């Protein structure tokens, strides 16, 4: 069972780590490319702030975004802002999300996210945690997949393995970090392919942050994963 209060606390911790790292940058660094194609570091920070407000919308029963075009336009609008404006926006939007997530409510209710994706409300703090941790890595400011909290890495690996479970374009695959295992891809009694690697390398591949060249693959080639 998802403990949304526990995840809200993890979100706060991750946000503080992100803000500390961002505060060490300057305006010139914000205009430099991030690790996400076509996005500067300013784009990443703008997205993090706007995502918090979007999840508040979901918690309060509104559409996550007015439209995909509006989402993209808001990020483009906010990306060039000065560092202090970004920091204030990330901090204030995080406080709005925490307030909405701390309010009493039916945490078992089903909510709708982007592109028709649904989930239970209790999972939203974890989804927010994912946004902060992975986009902190995307900033390219010294925070790597190896620096992610172990709890986060394990849970996000399980989440992504489940996301691809049953996908017709992914062969039956067993994932292992040497200690734990997860099944993904087409369901079968026996997996066709076994993929083994460090927790960071497995997560990086599943999350589209690494190509998987450091992974050990048996039974075939490393599967090509569909976009997230």
From TrEMBL:
Classification via Gene3D superfamilies: 3.30.1050.20, dinb family like domain
Domain MDMPI C-terminal stretches: 147-226
One term of GO molecular function: isomerase activity
Keywords: Isomerase, Pyruvate
Mycothiol-dependent maleylpyruvate isomerase metal-binding domain sequence ranges: 12-139
InterPro entries referenced in this protein's UniProt entry, alphabetically: DinB/YfiT-like, Maleyloyr_isom, MDMPI_C-term_domain, MDMPI_metal-binding, SCP2_sterol-bd_dom_sf
Name of the protein described by the UniProt record: Maleylpyruvate isomerase family mycothiol-dependent enzyme
């Amino acid at each position: 069972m998802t403990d949304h209060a526990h995840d809200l606390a993890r979100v706060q911790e991750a946000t503080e780590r992100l803000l500390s790292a961002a505060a060490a940058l300057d305006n010139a660094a914000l205009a430099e490319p991030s690790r996400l194609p076509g996005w500067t570091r300013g784009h990443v920070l703008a997205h993090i702030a706007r995502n918090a407000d979007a999840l508040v919308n979901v918690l309060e029963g509104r559409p996550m975004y007015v439209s995909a075009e509006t989402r993209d336009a808001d990020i483009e609008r906010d990306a060039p802002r000065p560092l202090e404006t970004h920091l204030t926006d990330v901090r204030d939007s995080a406080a709005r999300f925490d307030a909405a997530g701390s309010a009493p409510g039916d945490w078992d209710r089903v909510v709708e996210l982007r592109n028709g994706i649904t989930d239970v409300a209790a999972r939203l703090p974890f989804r927010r945690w994912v946004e902060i941790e992975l986009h902190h890595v995307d900033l390219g400011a010294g925070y790597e997949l190896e620096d992610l909290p172990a709890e986060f890495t394990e849970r996000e690996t399980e989440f992504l393995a489940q996301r691809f479970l049953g996908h017709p374009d992914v062969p039956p695959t067993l994932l292992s970090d040497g200690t734990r295992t997860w099944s993904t891809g087409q369901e079968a009694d026996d997996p066709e392919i076994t993929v083994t690697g460090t927790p960071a390398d497995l997560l990086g591949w599943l999350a589209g942050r690494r190509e998987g060249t450091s992974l050990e693959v048996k039974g075939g080639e490393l599967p090509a994963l569909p976009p997230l």
